[in-house]
Amino acid sequence: MRWGVVTFPGSLDDSDALLALEALGEPAVSLWHKDRSLQGVDCVVLPGGFSYGDYLRAGALARFSPVMESVVRFAADGGLVFGICNGFQVLCESGLLPGALIRNRGLSFICAPVHCRVEETDTPFTRAYGQADVLTLPIKHGEGCYVADPATLQALEDDRQVLLRYVDAAGRATEAANPNGSLRNIAGITNAARNVFGLMPHPEHACEALCGGVDGAGFFRSVRSTLTDGLPTRTASVPPGL
Amino acid sequence: MRAKVYVTLKPGVLDPAGKAIERALHALGFEEAHDVRLGKYIELHVDGDATQAAGRLDDMCRKLLANGVIEDYRFEVGD
Prior knowledge:
The complex is a heterodimer. In chain A, 21% of the residues lie in helices and 24% in strands. By secondary structure, chain A is an alpha/beta fold. Chain A has one domain (3-229): Class I glutamine amidotransferase (GATase) domain (Rossmann fold), CATH 3.40.50. In chain A, strand 3, helix 2 and strand 4 (80-84) form a beta-alpha-beta unit. The longest helix of chain A is centred in the last third of the chain and has 13 residues, at 217-229. Chain B has a single domain, classed as Phosphoribosylformylglycinamidine synthase subunit PurS (Mth169, Chain: A), CATH 3.30.1280.10. Helices cover 35% and strands 27% of the residues of chain B. Chain B has a three-stranded antiparallel beta sheet with strand order 2-1-3, with helices on one face. The A-B interface holds A 56-57, 60, 64, 92-93, 98-100, 102-107, 145, 147-149, 181 and B 13-17, 20, 64-65, 67, 69-70.
């Protein structure tokens, strides 16, 4: 199996994603935004950065690049797509994930480590973690405030599509632990089919002890397990109200 | 045809930039200013007559210029 990391004009973390995958022993190739071919990769990473200068809206223009046409088809066929930061914004703008990411509540660009709680572990992206594990991951964004209408939020909760939430060190999803104003402290979500994942924190910057921690490696290991062993068994959703 | 497109945040969507502008206005003594919402204004030229242009502009807004999850839009066609 092999990974593909897309480079858009303005991508910044494409090479870091490739380095993280290399450190984890994962074979990966670079995918160029003008190419339609995904070179037969098994998982596509949309990296962080400022694709197309964030013109109009963050992620709005990248969705029209030739490579994204292929990524949308790949996702529709069940291919695994992993969007980090700007990649998450691109996935929302593309309609592959619900909701949108808007300006941080405090207006400032934030570059800091945060705590995130793993909400679900029966997905291709989080199976290597334990339920409610608290991870330390860096964020660095100006537009990371996740919003969606109330019906969409409820559907995400009912279907257990929220995979990651901002929490304090003790694992509590408090207002104070919410760095950017994201509704319900949402830091990462998956789609209904659970093959597309977007998150604002940067797991690729947390894969080597030298760089401050390895808490991000589990996302990549989860995908590796999925592609090697097949999809994880999905546990039944708890009916709303229980 | 000249066209003007206005993209605004939907009511209820958090607008921290609008809030910051409001605070700055108050700091300057414009205490009467409230509910500041920051939007986008886009000018463009569209080929075709006004009716055709309006249909195409609506398409442009839905597909690119506005994000329907968080934004509303309206446009004016003509000089």
